Amino acid sequence: MSTTPPDATLTCTDALLNSSTAGTYARTVGRVVDDVAARLAVVDQPWSGASRTELAALVDGVDLDAPGIGADDALRETADLYATHAVWFHDPAYAAHLNCPVAIPAVGAEAMLAAINTSVDTYDQSTVATLMERRLIAWTNERIGFTGGDGVFTSGGTQSNLHALLAARESALTGPDGTRLRGVARHGLQDRLRILTTSSSHFSVAKSAMILGLSDDAVVTVGGDADGRMDPGALAAALATTARAGDVVMAVVATAGTTDRGCLDPITAIAELCDATDVWLHVDAAYGGGLLVSRERRHLLRGIERARSVTVDFHKTFFQPVSASAVLVREPADLARTSWYADYLNPVPEAGAADAEINQVDRSLQTTRRFDALKLWATLRAVGADGIGEMVDAVCDLAAAVHADLAGDPELHLIGRTDLSTVLFRYQPEGVTDAQADALVARVRRVLFDSGRASVARTVVDGRPCLKLTLLNPEVTLADVRRVLGLVRGAAHGILAGQALADEQEPPCRDVHPHLDRYDTVEAAR
């Protein structure tokens, strides 16, 4: 029998956070914070530019079945793998997707909530955390203009939109007596439910329709203007056409900040039509929700208070770490329709008691759920709502400055306008055909991404590929954006030059390697 003492790293309980390991926790997390801070201080491009093959080799090279190596070595190894090759959203050359640099107070709160590990599904697991989240839901509702509304934090805009449309579906499938339709009556009506929205709405609207069991043609596209905003006239026509067909409009989804263009639908005009036809209006303000705290642009959300439900992503224009979103409803009864009860969690008799505990699982699609609201709470207390609003206005101002800077540019041509912080453009100087410009979009984005020097996005607008900048960093300057656009120009120039060289003539026919003569000459000289 072996007398070798067991490896201390295998004492797994030593790795658990409790009163006896508090000192280890402080030292361990401190080292991680110091390492990340040191990396942040020297970041000079969005990411390393390592190839997928290289990254896969690094990942696959870690033996996850090997004995433990201890917390310090494990975290050091993890940082060398993950942090070294992560995408840094705070870098000025990152301008691809709806990712923002995060507020430091929120990062501190993230560490706090991760260590305490609260689950805000029931009050007895969360106590004050539930009350703090309920206060933030009330605060957001007040900003929207919902009096006495309700809501819950979610994992992101996709879940928020799904939850809102679930509530809309349940409202549509409620009988005149207020009870939930069942059986043939329910299924027959569900097949006729329709969602009206524009082609610019988020993909999660169509995905939600699929998840909710609606028919394949449930999502009806409503026409828009040249910038993708919903046309109220087209909506009026779609409402009438749907009714004539014997179908039922379950919801109209207006977008307050389209993903591609950053434009807002005319909410007030849409709300007028929804009110007139008694139709549920959902406003997807995942991107544009930050305007709720903007001094300069809050008016763009005028009419949002007339919606039945609203999505807000705090991890976009409130500068919160992923994830932090919320679905808000004007009438608490709308969320109550989606409630579910379990004896071991939130029993019905208790739920109806006057002194019942506040169990947010009644409102949420999730059971176990992180206390993500704490991050927003800390940020609001640290910099204030006006401070967040100033950052929102800063990124919108920057986008406006970039649009002005590119007006009349001979190479980079703007595509449409924006209400928020998006810049759409194509590289197409004189002499470059549409087909060539189309092909350049993907190649330029790939060249920049593979190099690690800059990250821009691509999309398709009106059938044409284009490049996209999503500006969500309030510290980025016009000079920073010009540098990124300079990289775009340089990549495009190089690609076109290479194509021209390849097309100029067929490569010479040789019986030997094309560099052999030069090599022989050099060798002879030696």
Automatic annotation (TrEMBL):
Cofactor: pyridoxal 5'-phosphate
InterPro entries (UniProt xref): PyrdxlP-dep_de-COase (IPR002129), PyrdxlP-dep_Trfase (IPR015424), PyrdxlP-dep_Trfase_major (IPR015421), PyrdxlP-dep_Trfase_small (IPR015422)
This protein's record includes keyword Lyase: yes
Keyword Thylakoid: no
Family matches, as Pfam families: Pyridoxal_deC
Spans traversing the lipid bilayer: none
Keyword annotations from UniProtKB, A to Z: Decarboxylase, Lyase, Pyridoxal phosphate
Family: Belongs to the group II decarboxylase family.
Protein name: L-2,4-diaminobutyrate decarboxylase
Organism from which the protein derives: Isoptericola halotolerans
Lineage of source species: Bacteria, Bacillati, Actinomycetota, Actinomycetes, Micrococcales
